[in-house]
Design goal:
By secondary structure, the chain is of the alpha/beta class. The chain is built from 12 helices and 10 strands.
Length: about 325
């Protein structure tokens, strides 16, 4: 697998300007009660503070702005999601009065569904998982003549890379950054920003043991689909890897760490106890991985991406109630 060359820094800065015209940068904090859990010093990048509660909102801004700037104004936009990508597209399209239909798998997060509707999207629940919902979305787009927004695209990556630029600009000399992998745009954005800035920071991808397709694919050097069984990290519940993302990750990641639902739940509790921050499963996975690798991080400056905080209240209550 060979990844494309990283976008130049000027292109990423231009994308970040589009993002910051629609939302402020998010903070990165070195919370006192988290120090000592991993490395010499630990920062959290709080993407749970975006206007949609997750990092994906950045990609939607850039994708839709560039689509419309190209002179194309589609009848409507359609996409598939487990929630955060759908909120991103719906919010960005609402700014321009473009209708949006989002396909989600059956049994998707109730509160993520409600948020997408609140941003103006029409929601369709079809399919047993994300891939099945995406197939339904593609069929709908073809039948209606609407624009199908992919879940992975260079403009989406350029948009989410803005959070990486914020982090690297704010915190000098980071040795290691942990980032969750769902379909891969967040990790690819980090790699793009790291490379454009000429930094030596190692980037560690984090997958769920219940959604290991990217770990298996990177180890094999080819796409290896795998069943999804995670019950908590729905933002990482990918069954089939995205080839473009896989190529970038193969080139740019230092390694991949797998964390199970129990470790993710413990990280969610730790985040609440130490910072009073709400993290969804994927949002806590990076901290879980950093804690898991504590021994190898001694003396290092570490960051973990809290990629989102969109979790249903009843699910979060059960996690917090566990010992």
């Amino acid at each position: 697998m060979t990844g494309a060359a990283a976008p130049p820094l000027a292109e990423l800065r231009a994308a970040a300007q589009l993002v910051h015209a629609r939302m402020p940068p998010t903070p990165q904090y070195d919370w006192p009660l988290l120090q000592g859990l991993a490395g010499e010093r630990l920062w959290l990048k709080h993407e749970n503070h975006t206007p949609a509660g997750a990092f994906k909102v950045r990609g939607g801004i850039v994708y839709v702005e560039r689509l419309l700037a190209s002179g194309s104004r589609p009848k409507g936009l359609v996409s598939a999601t487990r929630g955060n990508h759908g909120q991103s597209i719906a919010r960005a399209a609402r700014e321009h009065g473009v209708p949006v239909t989002i396909f989600v798998p059956q049994g998707n997060s109730r509160e993520k569904n409600a948020a997408m509707r609140a941003f103006g999207a029409e929601l369709v629940e079809q399919g047993s998982d994300f891939q099945a919902a995406r197939e339904r979305a593609q069929a709908f787009a073809a039948a209606q003549g609407w624009h199908m927004v992919p879940s992975f695209h260079p403009d989406l990556v350029a948009g989410v890379a803005s959070y990486a630029l914020e982090l690297f600009d704010a915190v000098a000399d980071l040795d290691t950054v942990y980032v969750p992998i769902g379909l891969g745009s967040g990790a690819c954005g980090l790699i793009a920003a790291r490379d454009a800035l000429g930094l030596a920071t190692e980037i560690v991808g984090v997958v769920s043991t219940g959604a290991p397709t990217y770990a298996l694919s990177l180890a094999a050097g080819r796409p290896v689909p795998h069943e999804v069984t995670t019950q908590l990290a729905d933002g990482m519940a990918c069954r089939v890897p995205e080839p473009q993302a896989l190529a970038i990750l193969a080139r740019g990641l230092a390694r991949v760490v797998a964390v199970d639902d129990e470790a993710v739940a413990q990280a969610m509790r730790t985040l609440f106890e130490a910072t009073h921050q709400v993290a969804e499963g994927a949002g806590a996975a990076a901290l879980a991985a950093a804690c898991q690798e504590r021994a190898r991080l001694q003396g290092r400056r570490v960051a973990a991406v809290c990629s989102g905080g969109n979790i249903d209240r009843d699910v979060y209550a059960r996690v917090l109630a566990q010992a």
